[in-house]
Amino acid sequence: MKVLAGLVAGLLFGLGLAVGGMTDPQRVLGFLDVAGAWDPTLIGVMGGAVVTSFIGYRLVWRMGAPRLEPHFFIPTREDLDVRLLGGAALFGIGWGLSGYCPGPAVASISGLTGPLAAFVAAMAAGWWIARRMGERQG
């Protein structure tokens, strides 16, 4: 059941990205181009996501416990460290250069292009490196 719930959530997320135009890297790059041909579409998509998440979290917290797990898994770390800040910087640089972040990249995989393939390869390499670094520290 958890796999099915994850599949449905992923499909809804991908559909939302596609409907919002976020699978088009030019739209994202247009949003980041505030001094040129600025495209404000991403603000609407982000606003819709924030409102949906705000309402969704309020409803979920009222349940007391998740439906498919015994309890909520809430992160306990609150500190900022070099790994977190470095990862955020790399994410932002990659997003700004390519116009993709992981969700839209996976949602766009059916129309694979050279730049998308390079992004997905770099993303997979980053996951692998992060896991290796985590194993060494754990």
Q: What is the assembly state of the chains in this entry? A: single chain
Cα Rg: 17 Å
The largest pleated sheet is described as:
none
**Alpha carbon gap, first and last residue:** 31 Å
Shape: globular
| Overall pLDDT score | 88
- The domain tally reads 1
Helix content: 55-70%
**Secondary-structure content class:** mainly alpha
Number of helices: 6
Proportion of strand residues: under 5%
Number of strands: 0
Encode the helix/strand succession as letters: HHHHHH
Poorly predicted runs: none
Organism: Halovibrio salipaludis
Transmembrane segments: 42-61, 82-100, 106-130
Keywords: Membrane, Transmembrane, Transmembrane helix
InterPro entries: DUF6691 (IPR046513)
